């Protein structure tokens, strides 16, 4: 069983001044360990516009490697502009995974566009950078989008490389359902795709993680790391409806695998839970694992879908 020690809240974007594009949320973190710091990429938002709509940008901050609770720099600008008129990422860029590969930074992200009958649609894009501060898309189109096995939307990519193979764990919409007030909510599950070059992907139709709450359980934020001879996945899950600010909201789940394809879910071994009070007392989600000085750390979001930023925990095993 894993045992994670919480180190506290690290960053709250609502307290940042002078950045009109960063007023709320620091979601979907992804860390890259650099020579002098740990760079954490995340999704942030300005205030809602006059139509009460959000857009989402990608940014980063740098943490002191000797004290991960110390922020030494916050990016001056978003690292990627919103997409062009009519593109899949016109209204939002979620930075769910940044990898340093062959002397380049690869940004795998979920791009959002708006719809009429439902609130949004999502596909997965890729941008690259030489310095990790400013990125350029490889295309105006996505690298993975809805298809015969994923008919509604795809989002939340986390990419890990094992034995020179790229493994992308992402989430895919199964359907839309309406709550009692008639608001449409999407139901999504974790899926897997594999690639030899990080650009062209082959999807698996199988769902690797079984649902335990109900048929309409939603799963998100999958991240995988290798430790003591097994692959370990941390992810978030919640009920399909009536999940905001109550006991039906996001929790962190756990599964293990020997081959990255077949997974055994065992949430009793997760080793990290809600706090009794404070910023992560009603929700925990979007976990991300990174390794520094032979220790594993977990970044994660708390209440209100990460509106007040993210925190950090360290593995005590």
Question: Helix and strand layout, with pairings?
Answer:
Layout: E1 4-11, E2 24-33, E3 37-45, E4 57-64, E5 67-74, E6 92-101, E7 104-114, E8 120-129, E9 136-137, E10 154-162, E11 165-178, E12 184-195, E13 202-204, E14 218-227, E15 230-238, E16 251-257, E17 263-265, E18 285-292, E19 295-301, H1 303-306, E20 310-315
Antiparallel strand pairs: 1-20, 2-3, 3-4, 4-5, 6-7, 7-8, 8-9, 10-11, 11-12, 12-13, 14-15, 15-16, 16-17, 18-19, 19-20
Overview of this structure, please?
It is a single chain. This protein is mainly β and 317 residues long. Helices cover 1% and strands 52% of the residues. The chain has one helix and 20 strands. The strands form five sheets. The protein has a four-stranded antiparallel β-sheet with strand order 1-20-19-18. The protein has a four-stranded antiparallel β-sheet with strand order 2-3-4-5, with no helix packed on it. The longest helix has 4 residues, at 303-306.
Which features does this protein show?
317 residues; mainly beta; four-stranded antiparallel beta sheet
At a glance:
This protein is mainly β and about 325 residues long. It is built from one helix and 20 strands. It has one helix at about 305, and strands at about 5-10, 25-35, 35-45, 55-65, 65-75, 90-100, 105-115, 120-130, 135, 155-160, 165-180, 185-195, 200-205, 220-225, 230-240, 250-255, 265, 285-290, 295-300, 310-315.
